[in-house]
Amino acid sequence: MKILRRKILKKVKQSNLWIEHIINDERVAGDFNVPVMDVDIYFRGGSPCIFCRGSRMLCGKTRCSAVIRLYSLLKVKSLVNSERVFGSSPPGVFVGRIGYPYVYAGPLIPPVIGDTSLFDMPEEWIGKSMDEIVGFRTGLIRGKFRVNVKKPFNNEQFLSRTIEIALSREPVDTEALFRKKPSGRFIFDDEVQPMGPSAPLSKIEIDNAKIDHRIEKAYGDTDLKAEEAILDLYFSGVPVSRIQRAFSVGAFGVKGQRKMVPTRW
User: What single string gives the DSSP state of each residue in 27-96?
Assistant: First the structure.
């Protein structure tokens, strides 16, 4: 797998000046010339991005989505300058898929306080610009902890807080302490979804989450199958994104059979 990965992804060297040519803002472009970067930049072999360089629009789009993602990621990076982040989770959670069933999971936390619900509610993105949507996604910092999706409660330290966030109906003020400063990994490819910086969690504290009583009822019913719970919630008017979030952290299903599900699935 590692050998194949090396063939597909190549890290952009500091001497590749073409990156500066696609970024008009000299201050932003200068971030790529520092010896140590918080954003590792890669390009995918065969991707039109390496030939297009943000100018020919070989992907068929009217604007370069890769450059938009890069701008947004650098903007967020400038707001994260320590191992501690305090913000209002939309609420949002992330469950990875690499290494399944042993994956990384955790809360999504933007470095801002207030109503951040739009950051993780695709139902409300209709009419929003590409820049706004990319900003929502890259603005979410991923706190990570390792978990076995089939036995998630073995990692009770972080899982309980993550579940509380996932079941909330409103943004949750969250303070996270990371093992290291959150960093980003950027791939020049028009098909890669925007993602914000991430880092392993060391500690997490949250304010009281306001749980949706309909989801809380399904969560507490350990005799209710996940399929039935999802359908009941959908027909009772619970937003799909909220159902998906709870489903990902293993909130539904019969006792002893609950497990986490990667958010991408």
Answer: HHHHGGGSSS-SEEEEEETT-THHHHTTTS-TTS-SS-HHHHHHHHHHHHHTT--SSEEEEEE-S-EEE-
